[in-house]
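Researcher: Structure for this, please.
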Amino acid sequence: MSTHIVVGAGLTGAATAWQLARRGHAVTVLERSTPANGEGSSHGSARILRYAYPDPFYARLVVDARDEWEELERLAGERLISPTGSVDFGAGRAPGALAAVFEEVGVEHELLTAAAASARWPQFDFGGGDAGVLWHPAAGVIDAESAVSAMLRLARADGARVETGWPVASVERVRAGLRVVGSDGRTEEAEKVVVAAGGWLPDLLGGLALPESFLAAFPPLRVMRENAYHFPYRAEPGGPWPTFIHDTGAMLVYGLPGGRDAVLPDGRNGLKVAEYNGGRPIRSAAVRNGGIDPANRARIVAYVRRTLPGLVPEPYAETTCLFTNTPTEDFVVDGVDGLPSPRPARGTAPSSRRCSAGSSPTRRRASAPHRRDSEYSGGNSAASSRVAADMTIGVVLNPGETGNAVDDVVAAAKRAEAAGLGSVWLGQRFDYDAVALAGLVGREAPGLAVGTSAVPIFARHPILVASQAQTSQAATHGRFTLGLALGARTFVEPVFGVPHDRPVTRLAEFLTVLRSLAETGTADFRGETLTAAPPMPTTLPGAEPAVPLLVAAMGPQALRVTGELGDGTLPFLAGPRALGEHIVPAVTAAAARAGRPAPRVVALVPGLVTGDVDTARKAADEQLAFYDRIPSYQRVVALEGASKAAELFVAGDEETVAAEVRRYFDAGATEVVFSQTGLTGPADQARTWGLLGDLAGGAAAE
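Model: Predicted structure, token format:
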């Protein structure tokens, strides 16, 4: 019987098997297909080896791992890493902060101006700005497939057995240790089992004989089917192109020499370019298909045309691969009773110095075990005291990353309804239609008001948006609210190919048309940014009352237009001070001047109830960092006296969160809607919804 079974023969599994075997353990590797096959994440000859991590912990790991890569190359007798160097640029990439990490860890680097970088690498357009360009010459490209083969070859030489065509179905506990059961009924037994299943882990996790408490604390996994494209060089490069990572503000793009993954007829290769997390989430690798997303292809081609003048902006090859991430994108190494599970979320290579055989498995920054729903009884807490009369409290819903997204949101809405919440809201994404989904949710959960938060007005026409909104209003029997947004330039122009020009003028014209359609059943409007003249009536029977129109307005001009033509505002990341001193007075005064009723102010607040505030704040810091790059959010965050969006995140026990809810109402909010409530898992989310439902119940009782 083996002392260790390793499930999965990708980079992580192969490295684990090699390190165990060289230490004298009896190792069996079980691979569902073949090592480094094209259905996983370790195939091909081109993966970036980089040192540029914002966390010094990971930068040091790469420094440590590089010694072992060199040892692997020596033992295997082949080169596995091609040196290229790497450049990081874009304000969101924070080259200066990365340079500070390099200083701390001792990685050779240069922080260049954009002009100096352009002179050195004219094949790039680094743009303007003063963020700089970070160069570190030690980076390179890993031949992943050859590395897997080399590690398994060395593991076999030390006595390991590698079984291919062996898909694992479950793990059982037996007297002698653990029994691994294949999907065809075959079995293997060992004292310990190491699971390195990558994108198959979401389906396998429940069959690993793990305690419920362990599974409850295990961070959720997100499997993405990613797209990558190979572009030819305009001229044969005199030396290797550097790998690069570029945060444009709208997307994170990376590129690297493509190795032998896609070779042109003349034997040359090109540059592989891809958008990080630009693909589609899937339940697991088991449901993967190889289709390329046309919208993603268009984004990358447009990016290459703008930013990489040294490439011909026409891909000659394209492929898909899998990314498997935790919410924080941290590596996880954990285990229970002989079942360790190393899983890289994103990075370069496993390092046996951090997880060697016989050592206690550790989890890097994994969440603490969540509290059970039964541990929180909101009705018995002083925090559930009343808020105020005639005020609604709701939550933002997001589909899960597995199963049927619509069914998942409907089920979540029913849980929100059962918790006593008054409303649920759906943000507009690229994979579902928020207006339609809100209508479905409202029909299935008749005790809830529903709304969108929010639908961008660019690349949409008010006649079509009005027809969608009326349909959802009729479906919900009058419980739907249409939330609109101006959108950010970085999300409009590169995505839809339309200019993000004169947004306040477009907002005014958009609301004017929507108001005309609602009040008269038609429109005859010819403005500066749009025309609306439907040839037949637009009123939908049953869509009553008229759909309320809210705008995610935070700037003074947008607030003026919203007060004059809309029914209220739904600002996100506007704290109590920004609400009370700026947003509420501005929108209220504009409504009064126009003779309109007092506006609704729906404050969208990121936050949750948790016993692990540090973990929650770290997760919020990463998730909300996106908004720090958008000027409108920068301004509203600054109005609160904060320096970044994550400082607006509310986290703590029931008393703490309830006090913050009251602050928003005291500042003039008529409704408070919590977002990011699932950031630290379902237990904290249930606890948060329970508190908010109790607060809403107190308001209703007054």
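Researcher: Any notable elements?
Model: The chain has two domains: 2-343, 373-701. The radius of gyration is 27 Å.
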